[in-house]
Amino acid sequence: MIVKFERVGLAYDGGAESLRDVDFNLGEGEFRFLTGPSGAGKTSFLKLIYLGLRPTRGRITLFGEDVTAASREALPPLRRRIGVVFQEFRLLDHLTAFENVALPMKVAGVNHNQYKEDVRELLNWVGLGSRLDAKPQTLSGGEKQRVALARALVSKPDLILADEPTGNVDPLMGEKIMKLFIELNKLGAAVVVATHDLELVRALGKKTLRLEAGRLHEDGAPPAAARGAAR
After folding, report:
1. Low-confidence ranges of the chain (pLDDT < 50)
2. Which of 23, 30, 46, 128 is most buried, by CB atoms within 10 Å?
């Protein structure tokens, strides 16, 4: 089992719980879309999976290890097995597109010669082969999104998490990005994609999670209110 949530709850600063009694299992090679209206807790849910947040209660198991109360020292090796496409990109302004994509490999101590072709190939694939030396401040929102995507995938992670990965790109590139996720899933990576694009969800026919009022529902069609919010 890649991810397991057991009765997980999350509250910020002692307030009301934003996620309540969440049970969730994600096995090797599984693909899930995560839907729900704005404010339903999708980003918080992803943060719990990639260890950006700790639950207020309940238990989370990641790659077979209970991470609920794990030490900080125990978390980096687990994080390195996860590729995350953040909604806000999180690129480093002083690094080029190539250096931003290569950063996970460099931090992991991989030799430059072992990853340079993978980085170039990924940037070529997302249409940025001519922008290897570009700094983030010279890139459009869609280009930054594609750099962030390449960075998340360069280490060939066991688990891929994406928060609205097609939100800043044109429909053609959005379709291309989703096809890449599907291909990586076929190669064995587990994938969770948070999105408001319900037409995309229906077109790809993958299993769906829906967050509503802090509760997680599996494989349910979004209610009318969620459909309206997603437009």
Report:
1. 220-231
2. 46
